[in-house]
Design a protein that fits this description.
about 300 residues, alpha/beta, Rossmann fold, five-stranded parallel β-sheet, four-stranded parallel β-sheet, binds phosphoric acid mono(formamide)ester
């Protein structure tokens, strides 16, 4: 059963069976990653270009590894050092890369909607690796995969996303994906970080983290985006940590076992204390490993749509 779309632009509106198919396909690829020889041939003869107009460690390396594990030929492109610095447009850059007979394009861009635009101007399959504050679908898929791996299901689990929901593509994709898969989703943060009308997405809103933790199964802790002018959103990093930081003391007070996720990169002792990040209930590094399997599944399933 193929995916309904030939691109992965976001999880908003993605059918449940498509998410299920990606998660189930990733189980097989996760098993490949435990083999002595971690390479399989499905993308042999295909060429994938990774176009990163914004900084990335995990997503860029994870896609590149997933492509190589599937035996694809891989083109790397980073905006710094490219002809973008000479004024070349996204459209011209993408068309020139596609002229080299590229089959699939993975793109990260600071502008929301950039990958949707790309999908309209080139023939290759397009995968969104994060577009502004809009969506980061493979991050949410790997988060869901990791929760399902740890807790055996998504249906009826209570997942709380803590932090700057208003500016987070990770939060948006997680909300869409988790709601579609039947989870109960809450968001928590200061009012300055919660988008107006977010309840219309079917989530509950909390402003006090200690009110929600006693009922949650998993917490997805968002990074404080220090590159933004965070001082507009809360008085100080220390105050944010005091009110919203996920600490061992806070988790003990909640009185239940809570699985801890974080998309990375982590600000230790700001949104999450260092000991919680490294604790037995943290699945942060499993997320990174599972990300390779999820991206292999997405590349494999989309390549069959050509
Ligand atoms: N999770 C995530 O998107 O990390 P990078 O910015 O390092 O890719």
């Amino acid at each position: 059963m193929p995916l309904h779309s030939r691109h992965l632009l976001g999880l908003d509106g993605m059918p449940r069976e498509d998410i299920q198919l990606i998660l189930d396909t990733a189980v097989s690829f996760r098993e490949v990653l435990d083999r002595p020889i971690k390479k399989v041939p499905p993308l042999q003869g295909k060429t994938v270009a990774n176009m990163f107009f914004e900084n990335s460690t995990r997503t860029r390396l994870s896609f590149e590894l997933a492509e190589r594990r599937l035996s694809a030929d891989v083109l790397g492109f980073a905006a710094s050092g490219s002809s973008v610095s000479k004024g070349e447009t996204l459209k011209d850059t993408a068309r020139n890369i596609e002229a080299m007979k590229v089959d699939m394009v993975v793109m990260r861009h600071a502008a929301a909607g950039a990958t949707a635009y790309l999908s309209r101007i080139i023939e290759a399959n397009v995968i969104n690796a994060g577009d502004g504050s809009h969506e980061h679908p493979t991050q949410a898929l790997l988060d869901m995969f990791t929760i399902r791996e740890k807790l055996s299901r998504l249906q009826d689990l209570h997942v709380c996303i803590v932090g700057d929901i208003a500016h987070s593509r990770v939060a948006r994709s997680n909300i869409f994906g988790l709601k579609t898969m039947g989870a109960r989703v809450s968001v928590c943060g200061p009012a300055t970080m919660i988008p107006r009308d977010v309840e219309k997405l079917g989530v509950e809103v909390y402003h006090h983290i200690d009110d929600v933790l006693p009922t949650v199964d998993a917490v997805n802790v968002l990074r404080i985006q220090l590159e933004r002018d965070a001082s507009r959103l809360f008085p100080s990093l220390r105050e944010y940590h005091n009110f919203y930081g996920i600490t061992r003391k806070r988790l003990e007070k909640a009185g239940r076992t809570i699985t801890i996720l974080h998309p990375g990169p982590i600000n230790r002792d700001v949104e999450i204390s260092a000991d919680v990040a490294d604790s037995e209930h943290s699945v942060i590094l499993q997320q990174v490993l599972n990300g390779v399997a999820i991206r292999m599944a997405v590349l494999y399933l989309l390549s069959s749509k050509n």
